[in-house]
Specification:
By secondary structure, this protein is of the alpha/beta class. It is 38% helix and 15% strand. The termini are far apart.
Length: 383
């Protein structure tokens, strides 16, 4: 093992020196992608391709982690001038803190710009024909309609691997979808549940409901479903980042953290619902502005909410169902999508977030809105 490690370091040293020399004649960058999470693969690479689209002659080497959440998705982002590999990870680690190699590093704002408008552009990736044909047959064989909706929830099984950060506030029970799935069944809309390591299997017997455990199907099929659904409903998770890559809107429920600046990672035309939060000390509910002002570090290993005497409240089945109906109307370009009460709430939101420059961009440029039906049921959030 020592000999192998020594050889790797030797080749890394040669590679770095060679790249440093070649960088005098070409533009070469070395970076790192957190490949253990599908969201980082989709979000960071989508942003990078968009942000560097006008940089002619750019060549990029991205180091990958030992674990790759979805190799098929990673291959979709491969380009003639973009390369992935574990070897490049070791090269990146050798130079990331060295000032004399700073010019070789991929800029962080290329991977995570302040507010990306990539969701308005044409997709940078597409499903290969062979996979597309297989996916189409899969839908036909399982009698899944073409306008199917993907359902996903985050539960405790997501806290796996070496991620020791506290994410419990992002979880919710799949049973909270039951009213919405019943509505879909009555309307003959196919519903497909996806997820990895699903903790609790649903016992739905609806003829139009299908359970798709990602651990039991191919990587290609799981990505195909996200690329071809009408839209996806979930909390803020990596699957929604994949949806954006295929320009699919999403209904993002139970959203925490509620950071408007991060909503650029949702697809064009998406709708968002926050979790409500109760302040135990003051014995009152936080307003929407209060919730958006909370600085929640997703890498914090403690429980931010209990530490601050706060309690999160999951969206109810009725709130989810009403927002689902709102999403259907929005996608189908229903002329009655916005009634007078919706417009009044929209204007009130503009007033609440008038100092947030990203809110106006989110609404006007990406057509993403906070659910009006949810706010009708919770008007106190607008105080």
């Amino acid at each position: 093992m020592k000999i192998k490690a020594t050889l790797i370091l030797l080749f890394v040293f040669i590679f770095i020196r060679l790249i440093k020399i070649l960088n005098l004649f070409f533009t070469i960058k070395i970076g790192r992608i957190y490949t253990s999470r599908v969201g980082h693969i989709a979000k960071n690479l989508e942003n990078y391709i968009h942000e560097t689209r006008n940089e002619k002659g750019l060549i990029t080497f991205f180091g990958t982690e030992k674990k790759i959440a979805n190799r098929f998705l990673l291959r979709l982002f491969k380009r003639k001038n973009i390369f992935f590999g574990r070897f490049f990870f070791f090269a990146y680690m050798q130079i990331k803190d060295r000032k004399d190699y700073f010019d070789l590093l991929v800029s962080e704002n290329k991977l995570n710009p302040n507010f990306s408008l990539v969701a308005k552009e044409k997709p940078n990736i597409k499903i290969p024909k062979q996979v597309d044909d297989f996916g189409s047959k899969f839908l036909d064989n399982n009698k899944i309609s073409k306008n199917f909706v993907v359902f996903h929830n985050r539960d405790a099984s997501y806290n796996i691997g070496d991620d020791k950060n506290f994410h419990e506030y992002r979880n919710f029970d799949f049973e909270d979808y039951y009213k919405t799935i019943k509505y879909c069944n009555d309307k003959n809309i196919s519903t497909v549940r996806i997820g990895n390591d699903i903790q609790i299997k649903d016992n739905l017997k609806n003829k139009n409901h299908f359970l798709l455990d990602n651990n039991k199907i191919s990587e290609e099929l799981s990505i195909y479903m996200l690329a071809n659904c009408k839209f996806m409903i979930s909390c803020n998770c990596g699957f929604l980042d994949i949806g954006r890559s295929f320009r699919k809107p999403s209904l993002m429920i139970n959203t925490l953290p509620f950071d408007i600046q991060d909503f650029d990672t949702r697809g064009y035309g998406s709708i968002i619902i926050p979790k409500k939060i109760y302040n135990k000390n003051k014995k009152k509910m936080l307003t929407l502005k209060d919730i958006s002002d909370l600085v929640i570090d997703i890498h914090y290993k403690g429980n931010f909410f209990s530490d601050n005497n706060l309690e999160w409240i999951d969206n109810t089945q009725d709130e989810i169902l009403m927002s689902f109906k709102e999403m259907i109307k929005k996608i189908d370009n229903d002329s009655e999508f916005l009634n007078e009460e919706d417009k009044e709430i929209r204007d009130r939101l503009f007033d609440i977030f008038k100092e947030n420059k990203f809110y106006k961009i989110m609404l006007n440029e990406l057509n993403i809105n906070i659910s009006y039906s949810f706010l009708k049921q919770n008007r106190s959030l607008l105080n």
